[in-house]
């Protein structure tokens, strides 16, 4: 009788411990979700301004123009952009999956707002970020990974991950980071247990990631396959039995890629001679530098590869070898191009359950990890509380966006015709006005960008250029920035007065054949006479 009572008491204690464990996990998940949402939406004042939705960069406006075409003509792959590099257009690398997600969210929001499409574009990336965090939480808890709370905290507060999932930034990185997280989690489970279901999950996630972008996932997949060959060449008989034939996952992978080819096709384009000079204006194509990398991941990243290599050699932990290879490659590529920062931060966060156990004592591991986040906290301090110059630049960017919308709206009801404008404003002009632009923000638009720069630094309007590009409207902006950027892209200096200066001057009479149709504080719009 006493033994029976003791057994019941122990059962209650165990159940209560399990309950407390679940409660702790739930509380931590709520905390990191709150931190993540705050990080993803810190720029809400710049996105939702004056009752309108403003996106964070030109590529986002291009994405939303694609989605608007889908809403008007049905779900399909858009393989040609006729609104940039007008009238020739471009054949972009952009694919359909994120277009479809935004269009679907727009339909869900349609009953609640007239601006359902604009709101869907603004919120798609934060929602994907929440899904990304929830997936990592559920997977790491089910796998009982050590230091999984540190992994979730890193994902929630990393500035570069927050940028990928940022409000008002409907760009492909948000979907790509989510898919790669699923693919890497599947890879971990394959290495740990060889579970058959995870083979299918991994195959599908890698294939979908390659659909979204053929660049970064292809390199990471190559590293993973090489690591498989080096570290998992000899598998136990039990693992082979559990896994079974690899024909099924391989067929799924190939099938999704075949579907990708059928829907979106294969699109490749060469690089324009001015690409290197133009790329200096693109932040993601610059080197991140060590300061940038530490501001994304913290100081612990500096010793993470060493700790992983040590565990790999000392403990024969094969997964440490995988994380060592992935983290080293991503860090090197981030030093070359900052666009790799999203994936570096993701890899670092997901490898923490293998990095922190190297420090032996949990209290020491947590202390080192939290102290290492100092540069991350400093980066957020600069973002949330900018100094005078940074604050003025942010205010000016908002003012530019509002003024540009006014200028673009002045063209909405006018006859369709090409617009020559500063290239970085072109996608927003297309979105707000519906008029095609000679320039654009993709490297495929460089022919139009270069010709627009030639136009702005010329002394007189070039009739041949206006006719060739079917230009009907000319938009001018503050000439110092416009001229200096044009000179940099063209690789030469101007001599004498330019057409950009003449058209922007308040009291200057426009050249023959041009008529001023709109002006505000930052922009002036001219119409070309037939």
Task: List key phrases describing it.
single chain, 530 residues, mainly alpha, Rossmann fold, 2 domains, 6 strands
Could you explain how this protein is built, in words?
The protein has 530 residues and is mainly alpha-helical. The protein has two domains: 13-40 and 93-384, no CATH class; 389-528, Rossmann fold (3-Layer(aba) Sandwich), CATH 3.40.50. The protein is built from 25 helices and six strands. A four-stranded mixed β-sheet has the order 3-4-6-5. A two-stranded antiparallel sheet has the order 1-2. Helix 9 runs parallel beside helix 12, helix 16 packs antiparallel against helix 17 and helix 20 crosses helix 21 (426-433). The N and C termini lie far apart (103 Å). The model has no long low-confidence stretch (mean pLDDT 90).
Mean pLDDT: 90
Principal-axis shape equals elongated
How many domains, as an integer?
2
Task: Give me the side-by-side strand order of the main sheet.
Answer: 3-4-6-5
Detail the poorly predicted runs. none
Helix vs. strand class: mainly alpha
**Share of helical residues:** 55-70%
DSSP strand count: 6
The proportion of strand residues reads under 5%
The total count of helices amounts to: 25
- Describe the sheet with the most strands: 4 strands, mixed
Termini gap: 103 Å
Radius of gyration: 27 Å
């Amino acid at each position: 009788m006493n033994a029976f009572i003791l057994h019941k008491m122990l059962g209650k204690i165990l159940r209560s411990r399990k309950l407390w464990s679940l409660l702790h996990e739930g509380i931590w998940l709520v905390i990191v979700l709150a931190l993540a949402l705050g990080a993803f939406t810190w720029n809400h004042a710049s996105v939702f301004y004056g009752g309108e939705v403003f996106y964070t960069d030109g590529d986002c406006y291009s994405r939303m123009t694609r989605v608007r075409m889908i809403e008007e003509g049905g779900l399909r792959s858009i393989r040609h952009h006729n609104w940039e590099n007008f009238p020739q257009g471009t054949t972009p690398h952009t694919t359909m999956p994120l277009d479809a997600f935004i269009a679907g969210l727009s339909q869900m929001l349609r009953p609640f707002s007239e601006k359902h499409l604009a709101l869907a574009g603004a919120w798609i990336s934060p929602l994907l970020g929440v899904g990304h965090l929830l997936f990592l939480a559920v997977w790491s808890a089910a796998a009982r990974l050590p230091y999984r709370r540190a992994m979730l905290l890193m994902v929630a507060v990393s500035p570069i991950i927050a940028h990928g999932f940022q409000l008002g930034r409907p760009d492909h990185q948000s979907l790509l980071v989510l898919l790669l997280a699923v693919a890497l989690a599947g890879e971990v489970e394959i290495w740990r247990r060889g579970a058959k279901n995870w083979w299918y999950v991994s195959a599908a996630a890698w294939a979908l990631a390659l659909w979204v972008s053929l660049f970064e996932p292809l390199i990471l997949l190559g590293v993973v396959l090489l690591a498989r060959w080096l570290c998992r060449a000899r598998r136990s008989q039990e693992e082979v039995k559990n896994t079974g034939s690899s024909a099924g996952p391989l067929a799924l992978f190939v099938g999704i890629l075949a579907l990708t080819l059928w829907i979106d096709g294969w699109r490749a384009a060469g690089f324009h001679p001015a690409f290197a000079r133009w790329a200096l204006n693109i932040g993601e194509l610059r080197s991140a530098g060590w300061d940038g990398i530490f501001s994304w991941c913290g100081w612990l990243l500096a010793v993470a590869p060493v700790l992983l290599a040590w565990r790999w050699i000392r403990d024969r932990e094969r997964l440490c070898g995988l994380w060592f290879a992935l983290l080293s490659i991503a860090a090197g590529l981030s030093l070359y191009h900052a666009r790799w920062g999203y994936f570096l931060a993701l890899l670092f966060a997901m490898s923490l359950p293998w990095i922190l156990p190297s420090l032996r004592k949990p209290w020491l591991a947590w202390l080192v990890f939290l102290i290492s986040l100092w540069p991350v906290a400093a980066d957020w301090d600069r973002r949330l509380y900018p100094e005078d110059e940074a604050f003025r630049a942010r205010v000016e960017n908002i003012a530019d966006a509002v003024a540009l919308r006014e200028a673009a709206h002045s063209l909405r009801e006018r006859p369709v015709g090409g617009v020559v404008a500063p290239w970085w404003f072109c996608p927003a002009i297309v979105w707000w006005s519906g008029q095609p632009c000679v320039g654009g923000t993709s490297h495929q638009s460089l022919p139009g960008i270069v010709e627009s720069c030639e136009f702005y630094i010329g002394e007189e309007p070039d009739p041949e250029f206006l006719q060739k590009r079917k230009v009907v409207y000319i938009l001018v902006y503050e000439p110092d920035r416009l001229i200096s950027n044009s000179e940099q892209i063209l690789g030469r200096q101007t001599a004498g007065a330019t057409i950009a200066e003449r058209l922007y001057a308040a009291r200057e009479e426009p050249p023959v054949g041009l008529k001023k149709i709109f002006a505000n504080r930052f922009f002036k719009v001219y119409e070309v006479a037939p």
